[in-house]
Amino acid sequence: MKRDLRARSLAKGLSWRALGTFDTTLISYFITGSPVKALSIGGIEVFTKVFLFYFHERLWQRVRWGMHDAGSGIGLENAPENIHPNTGQLLQRQVREAYLHQRSKVIWLTGLSGSGKTTIAQELERRLLQENFFAQVLDGDNIRSSINSNLGFSLDDRKENIRRIAEVAKLYLNSGVITICTFISPTKEIRAFAKDIIGADDFIEIYVNAPLEVCEKRDVKGLYSKARKGEIKEFTGISSPFEAPENPALEIRTDQENIDEAVKKILGFLEPIIKH
C-alpha cells in the first residue's frame, strides 16, 4: 500500500491551511465589507488554529476509542480485493512435521538484557540438533539489525518489533521447525500479543530470570552503564519497565544455574512436547 512521504504530507497540510485561511478571509469580507478587517481576521486565524489544532490532537491521543493498531496489519476481512491467501492449498504443517519427525513449537525466551537468553538459545539449538531435532534461533539483535532496523525502542515500536517476529516465527512453526525466539518482550501485553499471533497451544514462554544487578555485571557491551548515564533512552530495567511473566511454562534462574544445567532443564521439559 502506497503512503505519503513526509514532504508530501507537509505540503498537503500547508495547502489545506492556506485554503482554510482564504475561506475565513472571504467570509469575513462578506460579513464586514472591509478588506482590512477580513485580512486581519484571516491572519489571526492562522496562528490561533495552529495552536488549537495542536492541543486538539494531543487531547485525542489520550482517547483510545476508535483507534486502529496499524502494527497488527490488515485483517483478511479488510484485505485488498487483489489479495487471495491460498494457505489451504499448500502442504500442511502436519506433513512437514512428519517429514522432520518432530512437533514444531515456538519457544519464547523472555528476560532482561544480559539474563542469558541468547547464550541459552544458541546452546539449546545445538543440543536439539544433536538429538535430531531441527531448530532455528531468531535472536533479538539479529532481527533488530535486519528486517526491524527501522524501529526504535518506544513501547509502540517494541510491539511492532514483536508483531513482525511473531509472524516470522509462525511461518517457521507452520513449516514444522522448532523456533527459539530470544526477545526481551518486556510487558505482559506484548508477550500476550505474540502468543495470540502464534497460538496459545504452540507458544512456550520461558522466563530467563536474573536479578538486575547480575545482568549489569554481565554487561560486556556497556549498555546498562550508558542507560544509567541517560545515553540510551527507554532501556528495559532502567528507564523502561520489565514485567516479569506470572505463569511461564518454565523459569530459568541463570544466577543460580549454569548454561549446561539450564539447557538440560529446558530439554527435559521440551522433549515430551516436540517428539513426533
Topology:
Elements: H1 6-32, H2 35-61, H3 93-100, E1 106-110, H4 117-130, E2 135-139, H5 140-144, H6 155-174, E3 178-182, H7 188-198, E4 203-209, H8 212-217, H9 223-228, E5 250-253, H10 259-274
Parallel strand pairs: 1-3, 1-4, 2-3, 4-5
Helix pairs in contact: 1-2, 4-10, 6-7
Structure characterization notes:
This protein has 276 residues and is α/β, with parallel strands linked by helices. It has 2 domains: 10-65, no CATH class; 93-274, Rossmann fold (3-Layer(aba) Sandwich), CATH 3.40.50.300. It has helices spanning 6-32, 35-61, 93-100, 117-130, 140-144, 155-174, 188-198, 212-217, 223-228, 259-274; strands at 106-110, 135-139, 178-182, 203-209, 250-253. Strands 2-3-1-4-5 form a 5-stranded parallel sheet, sandwiched between helices.
Distance between the termini: 41 Å
Give a short account of the largest sheet.
Answer: 5 strands, parallel
The CATH C-level name of the largest domain is Alpha Beta
In CATH, the homologous superfamily of the largest domain goes by the name: P-loop containing nucleotide triphosphate hydrolases
- CATH third-level topology of the largest domain: Rossmann fold
List keywords for this structure.
single chain, 276 residues, alpha/beta, Rossmann fold, 2 domains, five-stranded parallel beta sheet, 10 helices, elongated
